[in-house]
Design goal:
Blueprint: H1 3-16, E1 19-20, E2 27-28, E3 44-47, E4 53-59, H2 62-73, H3 80-94, E5 100-103, H4 108-114, H5 118-125, E6 135-137, H6 149-156, E7 160-162, E8 170-178, H7 182-193, E9 197-206, H8 208-211
Helix pairs in contact: 3-5
The protein binds zinc ion.
Zinc ion binds near residues 23, 34 and 35.
Length: about 210
């Protein structure tokens, strides 16, 4: 089943079946009236440790965290619209001039487990262009979730490569959740090594405790 068909089927299902709010669990719609305002973008700008500018739409905590987890891990594609709107705000704020979007190569295991690629689905919902297929994974990465900050860096170093030469092309990196920024930095490194200019990065959300934002 294609992503579009799957998400249309899930939307139709949620109309027929009672649904719990993805943000708080209340018996309501996909996202209840109390949780909805929590998903409005409040742009956070901060540099990654390598100097690449990062714009994030949301803080990854509370309602935001629960909603993104429901979207990514529980098949709750019925909350993709508010997430796509927030993601789009961050992407538009980070894009300077004409840029191509590029996302982190998804792991095959992740796509198989979910049946969809969360970042691509959000870009489609936002009416944004598909990410350019210019990055590849050079070796299997362990699931970053289970690793600490230093281990993440080691796990990632050299794990991505540009497909061919990218000289003269300008990219905006996009990802759903920036945890330490290590994945985005590895992607930026690979793109720059391929000759590309990396204008900035944009994420739907960022993890405040790792970025030291309070
Ligand atoms: Zn709620």
């Amino acid at each position: 089943m294609t992503v579009a068909l799957l998400s249309a089927a899930l939307d139709a299902w949620s109309v027929l079946m009672p649904v719990a709010c993805a943000g708080c669990g209340a018996d309501d719609r996909a996202l209840c009236a109390a949780c909805r305002p929590g998903l409005r973008a409040t742009l956070h700008r901060q540099p990654l440790p390598d100097g690449t500018a990062l714009v994030s739409a949301l803080r990854y905590e509370g309602v935001v965290r629960r909603t993104i987890l429901a979207f990514k891990e529980q098949g709750r594609t019925d909350v993709s619209r508010p997430l796509a709107a927030a993601f789009s705000s961050a992407i538009r704020a980070a894009a300077a001039g004409r840029v191509e979007l590029v996302s982190i190569p998804p792991s095959h295991a992740g796509v198989r487990r979910r049946g969809y690629d969360p970042v691509r689905l959000l870009l489609r919902r936002a009416g944004l262009p598909r990410p350019s297929p210019v990055l590849s994974s050079t070796h299997a990465r362990a699931r970053q979730k289970t690793l600490g900050r230093e281990q993440r860096g080691r796990n990632l170093a050299g794990s991505m490569a540009a497909k061919g030469t990218l000289a003269g092309r300008r990219f905006l990196l996009v990802d759903d959740v920036a945890t330490t920024g290590a994945t985005l930095m590895e992607a930026a490194r690979a793109l720059r090594e391929g000759g590309a200019e990396v204008v900035a990065a944009a994420s739907l959300a960022f993890t405040p405790k790792h970025f030291g934002d309070s």
